[in-house]
Every structure is written in C-alpha cells, then in structure tokens.
Fold this protein.
Amino acid sequence: MTTHSLSDKIAVIIGGTGGIGFAAGRALADLGASVVLTGRDAARTAKTVEGLPAGNHMAAYAEVADSASLRKLAADVQHHYGRVDILVNTSGFTRAIPHGDLDALDDDLIDELFAVNWRGQFAAIRAFAPALRASGAGLVVNVGSIAGRTGQGSNVAYCAAKAGLDVMAMSLGRALAPEIRVLNVSPGVVDTAFVPGRDSTFNERAAKTTPLRRIGHAEDVADAIVACATSLRFATGTTIVVDGGRQLG
C-alpha cells in the first residue's frame, strides 16, 4: 500500500526561491518532509523558507552553474540532517530569441544556457548521489520542459538542453538503479516570471491553444513532483508531462 507521508524524508530543492521550486518545497513540506530551499540571495532564500509550513527546514546558498558550490551544499546538508532522500532540480534560465535568428544565439549564451539548464542538474545529482544512494530509496526529479520534445520554446539552445534532461533521466535511471530513481517532470507554459517578456497577453493566447484551455500553475508541477515521491514509486528513467495537452497541438 502506498503511503503519502514524507515525515522521515529530507528534500533538497535546487532553485527553491523560484515559483516552481517554492511550490514543490511547500507541497513536500505539507506531507511532513524537511525541506532545504536553495538560492543565490541569502536574504531572499531565508525569507522564502519562512513561507513553508512549520518544520525542520533550512535555507542554503547554491550556484547551479558552480559544481564546487553544489558539492559544498551536499556536504552542508549531510552534516545538518545526516541524510538526503529527495533532490529536486528546478533551476533554469532562458531568454526569448527567435529560432531563425542564428546570430543572436551566440556562443557565450549557448554555454550559459547549457551550464544552467543541463550541466548544473547533472552536477547536483553527482554531488548528492552518495547521500541519495545511502538512503536506499533516493529520488531525483528534474524539471524539464515540453520544449525538449516539441522543439518549440524560448530559443533553440534551451530546447536542446531540455531534451538533454529527458535523455539524462533515461541514462541515469538505468545507471543509478536500484538505489536512486531519476524522473523528469515536463511542464508547458507555466504562470511564473521564468521567461522574461512574457506577459498576461502571452498567457491568454497560450491558454486558448492548450487543449485544457488554461496554462499551468506552479502547483500543477509541484503536484507531479509529489507524485514522483509518493504514488509513482515503481517509475524511473522517464518523463512525466504536465502541460494540459499543449504538446499535442
């Protein structure tokens, strides 16, 4: 029988001050998990942690593009709690660039997009793998995007990086089993400030072209992350799409 209690679990949310990261942290905390929210601004991260349900939570600094920072984070969390059970990678970065404007997608921007949207996720998994393995039932959830499947997104490099997360789930789902499960949650358009320049007008247009006639909320993605930790315990190496059917159209 599946239990939805996470009262004995330690969950680390990379990018926990963002909309999806905080929603995931709150949802996991609601089920009793102790949650570590990470961010690049200490004051903002500490304030965000205050918004979680009561519990043994922690604010921590992490720079997703800096592997040394992630290794220090893993050591600090292990020292503080003595274990890690769940790692959720929600960090991301993008910039809207028309796919046909090849010159605008210069080498420096491509490197930054891959560092933040793919390499950082791999580096976080690498840093936390010993603790997750030691838990005996470790879980990694990466937040991807349907852009990795459709090739339609803020820019070509972002689409490619998100496709790389789908492949990473397959590769590491195989390589890290049975001690660690690796899953992706793949949203479509979500009502956050993630993509600069997207406003309510964009969201309204996107809702009209989505089969379920609305865009996603951060809580929709958080619910899928919770399902990975509770209901979907026989799943690994795959991507769960939470997009209201947007990829169908």
